């Protein structure tokens, strides 16, 4: 069992940090250590946070070695997109000449950069650039009411022409 001494200032700092941190994984780490400061049993912390016993021990070791700063380190940044190198050029091109669909945006980006990505990747990249997709709907044409009634009478089945009666 790991024994960690917490002072009231550290407990308050853990509480604030676990509420305010932007990364959910870091919040989970901070919450586990915060619960340890409240003398919650280790098995209960594992159950509540849905983590394994070794993971909990690693959180405690991190806290002991470097405090909240060590726990709040983000070590996995992911892989940067190759499109990031062309971000400003892509944004300028799409703002000046907006595509109608994501497929069109994908082809324009491919022409400009030579990098091919899937539609969901393009959508995510455009969102990171601050661009959004437009929702386009059909515009109804001018309808001739007499022509519409004639169509209903000649082309629709008898059941569809009758108004429905309510069961009383």
Structure description:
By secondary structure, this protein is mostly helical. Among the domains are: 8-71; 82-128, no CATH class. It is built from 9 helices and no strands. Helix 2 crosses helix 4. The longest helix has 19 residues, at 53-71. It is elongated, with a radius of gyration of 29 Å. The N and C termini lie far apart (72 Å). The mean pLDDT is 87.
Helix-strand layout with pairing:
Layout: H1 8-20, H2 24-37, H3 42-49, H4 53-71, H5 87-96, H6 102-113, H7 119-128, H8 145-155, H9 158-161
Helix pairs in contact: 1-2, 2-3, 2-4
Short recap of the structure:
The protein is mainly alpha-helical. 60% of the residues lie in helices and 0% in strands. Among the domains are: 64 residues; 47 residues, no CATH class.
Task: Looking at this protein, list some descriptive labels.
single chain, mainly alpha, 168 residues, 60% helix
Structural class: mainly alpha
Helix content: 55-70%
Helical segment count: 9
- Main sheet? none
Radius of gyration from the alpha-carbon trace, in angstroms = 29 Å
Shape: elongated
Strand percentage, roughly? under 5%
